[in-house]
């Protein structure tokens, strides 16, 4: 089990770049953790690893699914924050997550099914300052 502590948004984004290189070209990453934990910031780094500008990666809270095509491959960015389990089940996500590209799911604790071969990270705020703890494989 891997575990990281980051002390700034920039560090979390840098960790995302490393993980993005590991995920390419077709991996799935499931992100869990509270609002503000850094899931979208980490996804920005993953986008950078795929040749996207960090500014292109925004919270998909209102759009549910955003797809990007970078010079290094495709990124599918999903956010389940506003969805009920029934709505999530109706989205066709299983097919999407089995399809091409790097797939990142925020609020993955709301996914009503297992994703074979997916990696997962749980992000959390540390009690003080800008620290974040990021733990793999929960
Ligand atoms: N170490 C850190 N890692 C990530 N984000 C941090 C960190 N310290 C402070 N922040 C701030 O926390 C917020 C994380 O927001 P965001 O990534 O949108 O969270 P989430 O997608 O998990 O709801 C940003 O405003 C960011 O600037
Ligand atoms: Mg987010």
What does this structure look like?
This protein has helices spanning 9-23, 39-49, 85-90, 93-98, and strands at 3-6, 28-32, 65-70, 73-79, 102-106, 119-125, 132-136. Strands 1-7-6-2-5-4-3 form a 7-stranded mixed β-sheet. It is 28% helix and 28% strand. It is built from 4 helices and 7 strands, in the order E-H-E-H-E-E-H-H-E-E-E. Strand 6 (119-125) and strand 7 form a beta hairpin. The mean pLDDT is 93. It has one domain (3-136): Rossmann fold (3-Layer(aba) Sandwich). By secondary structure, it is α/β, with parallel strands linked by helices. The longest helix has 15 residues, at 9-23. Magnesium ion (MG) is lined by residues 39-40, 59, 79, 106.
Shape assignment: globular
Distance N terminus to C terminus?
Answer: 9 Å
Q: Evaluate the radius of gyration.
A: 14 Å
Sequence of strands across the biggest β-sheet: 1-7-6-2-5-4-3
Strands, total number: 7
Strand fraction equals 25-35%
Which ligands are bound? adenosine-5'-diphosphate, magnesium ion
The structure class reads alpha/beta
CATH topology name, in short, is: Rossmann fold
Q: Average pLDDT value? A: 93
- Give the domain tally: 1
- Poorly predicted runs are none
Helix content: 25-40%
Largest sheet: 7 strands, mixed
The CATH H-level homologous superfamily: P-loop containing nucleotide triphosphate hydrolases
Helix-strand string = EHEHEEHHEEE
Report the total helices: 4
- Please name the CATH architecture: 3-Layer(aba) Sandwich
